[in-house]
Fold each of these.
Amino acid sequence: MTEAIATIAFWVFAITTVVGALGVVLAKRVFHSAMFLVVALGSTAAIYVLLSADFLATVQVLVYTGAIVILVLFAIMLTPQSVELPAFAPGGQQVGGAVVALALLALVIAAIRTGPWPLAAQPLDQPTSFAIGQGFLTTFLFPFELASLVLLVALIGAILLARED
Amino acid sequence: MTIPSILNDLIGQIGALLRYLLGLILPEGLAVALVTLVGIGVAVTFVALLVMSQIWAERKVIARIQDRVGPNRVGPFGLLQSVADALKLLTKEDIVPSNADRLVFALAPLVVLVPSLMIFAVLPFNWDATIARLDVGILYVLALATLPTIGIVMAGWASYNNYTLLGGMRAAAQLISYEVPEVLSVLPIVLLAGTMSLWGIASAQQGAWFILAPIVGPVAFVLFFTAGIAEINRSPFDLPEAESEIIAGFHMEYSGMRFALFFLAEYANAFSVSAIAATLFFGGWQGWILPGYVWFVVKTYLLFLVMVWIRGTLPRLRYDQLMNLAWKIMLPLALGNVLLAALLKNAGLMELALSFGWLGMIVLLAINLVVVVILFAGYNRLFRAVRQSAGLPLLEATQPAAQAARP
Amino acid sequence: MPGLNQFLILGAIVFCIGIYGVLARRNVIVMLMSLELMLNGVNITLVAFNRFLTPPVGVSSSPFAGQMFALFVIAVAAAEAVLGLAIVIAVYRVRHTVQVDQIDLLRG
């Protein structure tokens, strides 16, 4: 019963993720791309829930859809463009891009299928918040502090770059 | 005086009965799915009825604060006024601006409303009555509280109107500014409870409510409540949607049922913020004699009435005053609060303070009130002294200059 | 419950759609959004590996190293999106366009 629900949920959210991603790259108007990005990122959060990453799923919604998408929307509002400008690169480049993307996809799928993965006996389905917090403050303390420094630098840099003078 | 135990889990009993009855005629999985759907329908109906009662209560209380009576024509004491309003909004013509982006225009109210409804899934109405007992409950609530901002920007942009666009951007700026103090003010409570699950936080307050935690509790409550009121665009932070402003805001072009969805979202959000505050600071379902969910609803309603009281009493904040409050006052206070909470918890003083009995709680409350008043007054004085010593003008003096400098 | 392969293929598809977006679109904001898609694809792969593979052994590891890696990716993606969009706004002030093929010269 739970298995059936999990499988249905995976397929539903996988399809919405791919549809959202395709919408981002294929929509003619930038605002619609941003809307599709919300769909793609929200569906990714649902995929994380399916993979028992509860803390990561809520952080994904909080940071990606709650902050980065709003940032993108503000940038879209502050850079108005006429709609008649060509949205896509010239035809040859589109075909080239599609060929590259498809070739990479084929290569990666071939790599996924070959060779057995060292699967664990039991998938890891535990509550994650406490362990992640502990990991951040003991094993991965240095990257954690470094990440906060990166965010501080980004904050100051963005304010300086986007100022009116 | 005992209450029969069946009242303690009324909803759960009815759900089990329904599942049993359906299981007699349908296969197991289908019965569970149907009961879940019925449960979702009940929850949404409950929210709608709650919102109607909230609207009535707000209009009556605001009216009395403003020395008038409020709705009293439709039904006894105006109780059916919300029904009349709903019928009116349902039968209004649905106007869509001709150049509007129809899909985005139609989806915007949903993006604002659905996260507010999703928050109801984790509210702990009783010690065994939560729809979803998440480990990351409070983080889930805070993540969902960031989503209506997207809906507001969508509404402002899709209406194809300069004024709604400006209103939407200002509303979005206000909402993202108040997210940071809101998240930071919840951190001391998570620290005290040791868990992010709302059920866990409420049950950790069995000895004493977290609002009584020395210094940290009341400050965190004031910050969270203020940021919560700002997040749901209520007075005194309702500049984006104020009826008396020339720029009527992001929902100017919405009429009929679409506007009703925005309206519903605002009151559902008000209930959610009050419910989360009741769970985090006032113990959720903890109480004597009466069943847990009665206490939960009572506490939430009292906090909602405090919101109504604030709306009726305080004047609307101007936009720059609003941003000042968020970034220059609430953010440093919230950070200091987290630091203080961590220090006190590490020194073991928190457990000590929250372990006294009844008299201890009253003494703690008195001490807390005194300390909070001293703290806020002292912070104000310190801020003024620092600015004067640096030769900078005080906050009040900068406003006219900012007004004059604007083109 | 789908196995590891399905999640990995989903991550690969999202990543490749992001690559197409970066290569074939002219609007620099859409290119930044496609970059976010690529980072999301990588995150899905990381979290899927975390769930299905044997946990890493050793003193400097944790059973949720994959999810922590994904959290760092989210943090760095946020920082990079912020800076990228600030640059876009700054460039727009001078060139009044966000089409990449019109901003390809350093001089006027």
Amino acid sequence: MGAVFGLRSVRVGKIVETREDARQVGRHLTSAETVELARIQKDPSVIGYAVLDLDGNQIEASGVWASQIVPVFANVFDLADRMGGEFGEEDGCPVLFMESPDFEVAGLLLTSARAVIIKRKPKRVAEGLRSVE
Amino acid sequence: MSSDAGPVGVVLDKICAHNTDVLGCIVARDGAVYQNLPEMYELVDTADVVEQAENMLELTQGLETEHAPFDQVFLEYDHHAVYARRLDQGVLLLLNKPMERAQFKKMQLGVNLFLKPLNRALTGATASPKVPDEPQEGGAIRRTTRKRWF
């Protein structure tokens, strides 16, 4: 999971996690996944993330687009699983990536949850730095 | 593997020929679906697959208000990988052998080379587009000229 993004940039969003969030996450993730997620949150290039259960319900969401990530990607995961079925894939879509000119998103199937990680592309960060006077 | 006749089919053939991990392509625009898939995938509902890809891209448009929308999706499955890319008009889907992120980046570069001809073929659909047999201007990696990356 840690190798999803290999780039580094500047943190532009603040990720806040409460104790209740941590408890919720702990119910759905293995200890190794929890540790890895905590490590990812500290990565300065990650500007948002969410954890969903396998039914698409929010367990935790934080950072950029926190209120929108879960409903959007719950549907994206469903569509990805359905598309896999068309090609004979029986186990759904374990990994997906989405890209825009400014952002990258990774969606991962964990043991009993899904994780969505959002990162700003370094090109965009550099453009912001250039525009500083 | 044979594709629909016409300029779009020509570009799809070129994309498949240039990217060895690509099993087949689908392009859709305004309800018209062009495909270049092996026979074993003839039962695939390509219109449904295209709709799902378009919906994925459409859904994520709600996330962004001030920046450009998400225009590419890469899906890893156990036995396949699917790459969907929004075009000027329509969407391109590539069905690939299983690949990881690093291979995907390489393939993405290979697809970029044919985006202009594909967009031209889809929008024009009359004149036969110039499709490079090999990577040409714009997409080729220039080894002698250093360019600014932003």
Amino acid sequence: MNLMMLLEMAASTAPDRVAIGDATTGMTYAQLMDLAGSAAAVWKANSAERVLYSDISTPALPVALFGASWAGLPFVPVSYRLADDRLRRIIERQSPAILLHSDADGYRTAGIHEVSQQTTGEFMATAGAGSPADPEWSYDEDDIAILLHTSGTSGEPKVAVLRQKHLVSYVLGSVEFLGAGEDEATLVSVPPYHIAGMAAILTAVYGGRRLYQLPAFEPGEWVRTVREQNITHAMVVPTMMGRILDVLADGQGLPSLRHLSYGGGRMPIPVIEHAMRVLPHVNFVNAYGLTETSSSISVLGPDDHRAAVASDDPAIQARLGSVGQPLPTVEITIRDADGAEVGVGESGEVWVRGEQVSGEYGHTNALASEGWFATRDGGYIDADGYLFVTGRMDDVIVRGGENLSPGEIEDVLINHPTVSEACVVGLPDTEWGEIVAAVVVPTGESTIDPDELRAWVASQLRSSRAPAIIEVRAELPYNDTGKVLRRVLKAELATDLTG
Amino acid sequence: MILKSGLRLQSAVCDAQVIAVRAPAGVEVDLRCGGVPLVAMGDAGAGQSAISADHSAGTLMGKRYADDELGVEILCTKPGTGSLSVGETALLEKGAKPLPSSD
């Protein structure tokens, strides 16, 4: 097994189809294959043990990703947005290595021991002038393909190990070889160091769908690119969706777009409902997955979206807040704190098993017996097998012995007309153990009345869920892949509390 | 032959090349293409034998062929005129369950 096998199949069957970039001037599958081979020829002669990539999405990204697999080296995308000291520390840990960085960033990483550095521009020029290595790559399925730093919004960031077998299984199990029409194009706007950014390249290449890279997400630019590049498919994280809808208030729509998937965080129901109204011709897909599971393990498809909106049955309506059903290639169950499976509709921790599931970090393998991986996400499965993910287990608030899910309270807060964004955390309390605290962002010029919001939550849920503390802010802190920085908010609120 | 996930083979009767995607551990599997056992990549016997009329439905690029009972799954990486079987039993093309694109 090797990612190169996927590219070689596409390049041998559809060599002249455009793989990356503009429909007429972009890089073809044959060119991508040649460039990856040239990169591999250089890297095979080098003593580096890993290939690091610290830049925005450029055509050099897929070339380096496949070239690394060709050369038998793990590919390590790292965030170019990290502060200098953290960036250097992460790179130092991966040496001896090749580092590809942006033109402007060389000074930040200069002089790291045993790290040979090149800009992505120089890299592409070298690869273009070179000649490909022999097409002989390892087929050992246990070779490491990608090392990815997890986001660590609720714990310390870890390095997830994705082996060739995990990623190849994911692609073979979820994508039809060259199943895309020649007119189809995917817009990728998540950064290279997000699992969805890596998976987008692999599934687009194997599916034969042209991949267009947006270097950094900006909603106006995203909408303009979809219109100009006749983009048919795209994936966004929930925070991007709301901002895209704001731009679409121009009324010009997205005529070429057929398919919009979202994932990487919790999507507020009002936002997806709004999106479905604004883009009625688009097929929406909610995808749930983790870095450790090689991207998606459960999807809510277009028919489910439409059925939920059209239904009068509360159980079917509720599915708009679910992540759908597991992929046919994985199994998902819900277990209690003792590891015992719980019944239909009962909450617990989401466990997953399948060939795409790695569950491995650095030198430790977090897989439990029989290949099961505990996701640390809380959730439940309804009577028809739809999975609802309620949030990270670490974020659960324990108030007076009762477990409260922040996501459930946030959904109710966002449904209030004066609230556009909300983040709920637990704060230490001598009487209750923890109390509920909410940080809310007002909608437009609205004024938020804390007492009214408390009464609203109590009326929709139970009074134990009503936030004891409500803080109004102009914005919430997000990381660059759109996840709310809960730990940051929690620490700030706790400091306010103790004065 | 003993199959292993990642093992590449080619047809002795046509252009087909395949890779084992799933294989039962340590079990002898009589994997054939066009009715004749597959050979190692680069084997001189490739393309030398005659195709059996009973196994000439063809092997298609990018399709997966499986025998779920045996736990065998084979991916076609280069198409050919012979079709895949274990002994005389044809491998079945894995039903394409198109999933909505999620990346």
